[in-house]
Amino acid sequence: MTTTIAATSPPPSLRDRLGRSEQAYFVLGITVLLCAVGAATTPGFLTTGNFASLLRLSAAFGILAVGVAIVILGKGIDLSIAGVALGCAQATLALMSSGMPEWQAIAIAAAVALIVGLVNGVLVAYVEVPSLFVTLATGLLVIGAVDMLLLDSNYYALAAGSWIAELSNGSVLGVPRPIVLAAAVFVLAWFFVTYTTAGRLIRAMGDNFATARATGAPVRPLQVLTYVISALLALLAGYLTVSIQGSVQTTVTSFDPLLFTALTATVIGGISLAGGRGSILGVLAGSLFIGVLNNLLVLHGLTSAVQDLIRGGVLIAAIALDSWLHPRDEETAKSGEL
């Protein structure tokens, strides 16, 4: 008589269970807890005015985070978003101050953003230059070109009543326009990633590039598409930031805080830097978390140095958690190596 012993797979590890879970709900829970702490320790935090201000300021980097999230889902990275956001905003206001109609200035800036997205995508997809270096270089090129060719003042004020100014003025059904605009971007991005063929292929490409290409997916055009989407959303985020601030300083040569915040929100929200994993809902959750955190840091009157230390620690923790949950080399995830 022969006895057959069925092979049983070991129970999933903590890493596996967390890696397969929807990180958005966890981050939303932490955000609610952070709000509770803020309400108990920070006078003025739990007010309608403060929350409206918090959400308005979160809208711009939330839009930026959506763009970079789509690139990361396709296994890339886009650091040019800061240069596009700042450079195109500066260029638009400089052209308007010289007498150019607003629509023409916006059209030129949009063309620049589109070209940057195409250049990034083509160099990454067809020339196979690492996306980190390509996008860092193009972002610097935009800032440098705008500064050299267009800027002749240290400050450009946004004209009242302009289209860009109206992005942050007024409300829709009582909801401030920046929040409505950001919500529309999140919904459209969620639909694109979840329900369109291109969105699903981008996720598949990020999960396993070789397999996606072997199945006939147009991986190179899809890579280009992700960078174009990111550049155009960066343009929109730059306009929204300028609209909220009412002006742009040309002595500021970097939107690094906006870039840093967008990247942190993306990673905290569960968009894996390994590609192919995460959701737009997670990006929304990460954006809300960072918005609440930034608001509390300001309300507590912490110096910019202390705020940078805290934000840097949060980003390092988020990247470390992502690397643990979604290791680049799956061999490091074997049981017994933790």
From TrEMBL:
It comes from the Bacteria. The chain crosses the membrane at residues 24-45, 51-72, 79-97, 103-125, 132-151, 179-202, 222-242, 254-274, 281-303. It is a multi-pass membrane protein. GO terms for cellular component: plasma membrane. GO terms for molecular function: transmembrane transporter activity. Keywords: Cell inner membrane, Cell membrane, Membrane, Transmembrane, Transmembrane helix, Transport. It is found in: Cell membrane. This is Monosaccharide ABC transporter membrane protein (CUT2 family). It comes from Nocardia fluminea.
